[in-house]
Specification:
The chain is mainly alpha-helical and about 170 residues long. The protein has seven helices and three strands; from the N terminus they run H-H-E-H-H-H-E-E-H-H. It has one domain. Strands 1-3-2 form a three-stranded antiparallel β-sheet. The longest helix is centred in the C-terminal third of the chain and has 35 residues, at about 135-165.
């Protein structure tokens, strides 16, 4: 079993700037801000893209997609609930979102990174697991969990922003 130092030393260099970008996005999310809706979708899009990429790279894409789909459906409600208490408003003039600061983006981004990193290390240390049916389903399910949480969170925030604009439009 490789040591922690060996794992970190053998991590591809592109991983560290990605981690810095995720941390930057998460720290930005702590502060109230005005942003275009597409920017709010960055982390859920990253989660969706990495999960679909994992399915495509799987030894058995159909099995990975099954795990992914079941986890996506199971975790959509958790993502929906995660976006429930965060104040958000769609500005009618420019269509940007006024959003309160919160911990979700930081926690979600770090979780995506940590789970993907751990799965990469696991499959790097024990490559035979990539062909094991249980691990194919688990790998797909991890991606579905990430995608479900991100999509549910984003959908609820956008729904609430739109509803707030309908209820109390600004003049």
């Amino acid at each position: 079993m490789p040591s922690f130092f060996q794992i970190v030393a053998n991590t591809p260099l592109w991983v560290w700037p990605l981690m810095a970008f995720i941390l930057w996005l998460g720290v930005q999310g702590l502060q109230p801000r005005v942003i275009p809706a597409w920017r709010l979708a960055i982390l859920p899009a990253v989660g969706l893209a990495t999960s679909l990429g994992g399915i495509a790279q799987s030894v058995d894409p159909a099995a990975a997609a099954t795990g992914w789909g079941l986890a996506l459906l199971a975790f959509l409600p958790l993502g929906w609930a995660s976006g429930q208490n965060r104040p958000v408003r769609l500005r009618p003039g420019d269509g940007k979102l006024e959003i309160a600061g919160g911990w979700f983006a930081l926690g979600f981004g770090v979780s995506i990174f940590a789970v993907r990193y751990a799965m990469g290390v696991l499959f790097g240390v024990l490559p035979a697991l990539r062909a094991e049916p249980l691990w194919i389903h688990v790998s797909g399910a991890v991606g579905g969990m990430v995608a479900g949480i991100g999509i549910g969170w984003l959908a609820n925030l956008l729904r609430r922003a739109r509803r707030a604009m309908e209820v109390a439009p600004c003049a």
